[in-house]
Amino acid sequence: MELYRPLNADEYHEVEARSFRGFPPRAAEQPLFTALLSEEGASQIARHMRIAKDCDNVVYVVKFLVEDAYIRQFPVQHVQERTRRALWIPADEVDILNQHLIGDIRLLASYEINRADGEVFFA
Predict the structure, then answer these.
(1) Which residues are CB-neighbours of 28 under 8 A, at least 6 positions away?
(2) Do 35 and 94 touch, CB atoms closer than 8 A?
């Protein structure tokens, strides 16, 4: 299955350090790893994402393939718009997800985020 994810700069650099072969573990306060079913949805989120002030103001959109037999255990979550349908993978499954990736994680786009509003959140 082809999936997409917006990444803040820190997460992108961690993926890069893994030679684009896996995602880093989630922080304790992040119980889910969200993977979107459409590039459009991931790009919409990336362009409007709020990021922490101590993080670079660039957000990336990546594409990755996961073995169907593994990923189908996670039900599709219908959040707001159809383009934002997603799979919610428990944080403690990220290492297992990485074992089921097919090929490299690929960069599709990057967006510079305007911080003029001073908001500080990225989930």
Answers:
(1) none
(2) no
Question: How confident is the model over 45-74, as pLDDT tens digits?
Answer: 888 776 666 667 789 999 999 999 999 999
What residues contact 16, with CB distance under 8 A and at least 6 apart? none
Classify domain 2-112 by CATH number.
3.20.170
List the beta bridge partners of residue 58. Answer: 112
Q: Within a 13 Å sphere around the CA of 68, how many CA atoms are in the beta-carbon half?
A: 1
Helices (H), the chain: 9-17, 39-47, 68-71, 94-99
Phi and psi of 7, rounded to 5°? -125, 135
Q: Report CA 77 to chain centroid distance, whole Å.
A: 15
Ordered by start, the domain boundaries in the chain are 2-112
